[in-house]
Amino acid sequence: MGDPHFVKQLNNGNWLIVDSLYHSVIEVNEQDEAVWLYGLIGGMPLNDPHCAARNDYEETLIVDSANHRLLIVSQDLEVLWECSFLPYEGQLVHLSWPRYADFLQNGNIFLIDGKLGVGFELKRNGQVTKIHRSMDMNVTFAMRKTRCIHMIGNEIVFISDNENSRILKVRYT
């Protein structure tokens, strides 16, 4: 590992690790063996990824931060979906340093854009269904630099604000 930014335990007991220095997402089993690779190590083009998640269909969502995009990749390393632009405030905006994304229970994707400091809930076709924007600039700044977010249901969000060495608890309604 060079600069592991994110780790998440999968339903199968393995660990999904995002290594920003080696521009890779790696699934590691209990014997510490890499059983799935995507990125520079695996020969695929990622640039400073920050986060990854896996859904029940064995699809991996990757936040490819420096390439300003989200990817969904199959177990066979096929790119199933890519998102680089989103509608926001009447315009189509290019993602800029997406920081975090995860699959939601309803099948949608939750994404944080690092430049805007705004959270988006979107469908796989790119349609934005909800925008999470805070009037509190502390929350907005934290969302711009977050390394991890933990959601409880659809209302409470814990945001790691690594710029200010703290965790923020935010309630969205």
TrEMBL record:
Please name the SUPFAM superfamilies in this protein's record: NHL repeat (SSF101898)
> InterPro entries, from UniProt?
6-blade_b-propeller_TolB-like
Q: What name is this protein filed under?
A: Uncharacterized protein
